[in-house]
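testing teh design pipeline on a random one, pls ignore if ur not involved
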């Protein structure tokens, strides 16, 4: 692409890019050594000419190319036939008259090769063409540098992905082992069924759930938290200068951090579900009252629960989903809403269950309201919406007419 661009901006018939030549059999006793040219790209040539240039073999001397490749000097020749340096031309070479040569260096100063541009008409190139090709070379150096950075970043990410995969396999093996233990515990509990009272069974199940929840908290959640910290550390190590060039690499690190946050939230939900004992009639309201009480105790927010109707008991799956949504909503009120009042309303009819959480805070921007389902930033909102979809319900998120945010969950029964 760059070589084609070099031919177009100079309106030349031919343009080629050769890598830095190799000196074959360097001999200090000889004034001229054989040189091996390596063609990287050619533009404007026929397939037969291109094939010829890719198999030049050793050529006698550098001729007019000496200052271009070895001194870094841009060269313009109006007519190579009148230039004494035009020697060592290989057989079958394109019959050029005008010649333009410009060296290409990387941003670190390493010589990659040179643009060699020719035309069969004399006096085709001038200083303006030199400036254009030098500018093009500078842009090419930036592109090559960026490609090298991307390659290094890709390699680092692949290594990190491999490490994560190993850790996942180890965690999976550990979880499988624990699943086997749980299966054994379940069998033992079945054997003791006739010997234990219902109260004792519930206590044992609660203890077992608590142990599993503690294991998730102490191991899995801490691992995900450590991943998030590592991502923060990487972002903190990035230099402040040239940050625009690092944008393509900053975004994947942000994604890792967000995925770690999502995993932490999912483990938190699992811990919450495991920590709850079997909800009996009125259990939903009881747990909501506890959440409201804890919010009042921990903050200055005036929180209240309104129970409109409880016509029928709710299945455990629906109760768990509504409690998770209530917990996430109250957590958002506490951390982000800048609210002084929040009201949780519950209504259970024969047809549906409705949960509404409304505050008087700052609400959300229209952009967030419209895009949170497709945005990796608002994982909590996406999680609530997904839970309701799985239950065949509806999730609404709107700003109140007088301010604040309204979260509404409706689940059919």
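output:
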């Amino acid at each position: 692409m760059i070589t084609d661009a070099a031919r177009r901006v100079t309106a030349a018939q031919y343009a080629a890019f050769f890598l830095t030549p190799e000196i074959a059999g360097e001999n200090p006793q000889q004034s001229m050594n054989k040189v091996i040219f390596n063609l990287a790209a050619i533009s404007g040539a026929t397939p037969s000419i291109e094939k010829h240039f890719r198999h030049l073999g050793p050529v006698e001397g550098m001729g007019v190319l000496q200052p271009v490749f070895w001194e870094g000097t841009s060269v313009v020749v109006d007519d190579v036939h009148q230039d004494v340096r035009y020697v060592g031309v290989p057989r079958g070479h394109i019959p050029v008259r005008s010649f333009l040569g410009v060296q290409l260096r990387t941003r670190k100063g390493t010589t990659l090769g040179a643009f060699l541009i020719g035309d069969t008409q004399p006096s085709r190139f001038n200083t303006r063409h030199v400036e254009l090709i030098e500018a093009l070379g500078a842009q090419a150096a930036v592109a090559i540098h960026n490609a090298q950075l991307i390659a290094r970043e890709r390699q680092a990410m692949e290594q990190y992905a491999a490490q994560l995969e190993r850790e996942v396999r180890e965690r999976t093996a550990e979880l499988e082992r624990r699943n086997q233990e749980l299966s054994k515990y379940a069998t033992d509990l079945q054997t003791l069924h006739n010997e234990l009272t219902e109260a004792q069974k519930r206590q044992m199940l609660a203890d077992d759930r608590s142990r599993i929840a503690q294991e998730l908290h102490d191991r899995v959640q801490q691992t995900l938290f450590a991943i998030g910290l590592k991502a923060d550390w990487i972002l903190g190590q990035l230099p402040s200068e040239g940050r625009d060039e690092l944008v393509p690499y900053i975004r994947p690190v942000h994604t890792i951090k967000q995925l770690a946050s999502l995993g932490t939230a999912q483990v938190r939900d699992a811990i919450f579900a495991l920590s709850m004992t079997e909800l009996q009639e009125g259990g939903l309201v009881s747990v909501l009252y506890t959440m409201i009480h804890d919010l009042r105790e921990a903050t200055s927010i005036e929180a209240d629960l309104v129970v409109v109707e409880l016509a029928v008991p709710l299945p455990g799956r629906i109760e768990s989903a509504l409690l998770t949504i209530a917990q996430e909503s109250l957590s958002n009120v506490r951390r982000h809403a800048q609210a002084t009042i929040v009201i949780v309303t519950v209504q259970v009819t024969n047809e549906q269950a409705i949960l509404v959480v409304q505050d008087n805070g700052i609400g959300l921007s229209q952009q967030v309201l419209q895009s949170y389902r497709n945005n990796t930033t608002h994982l909590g909102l996406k999680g609530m919406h997904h839970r309701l979809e799985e239950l065949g319900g509806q999730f609404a998120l709107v700003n109140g007419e007088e301010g604040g945010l309204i979260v509404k969950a409706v689940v059919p029964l």
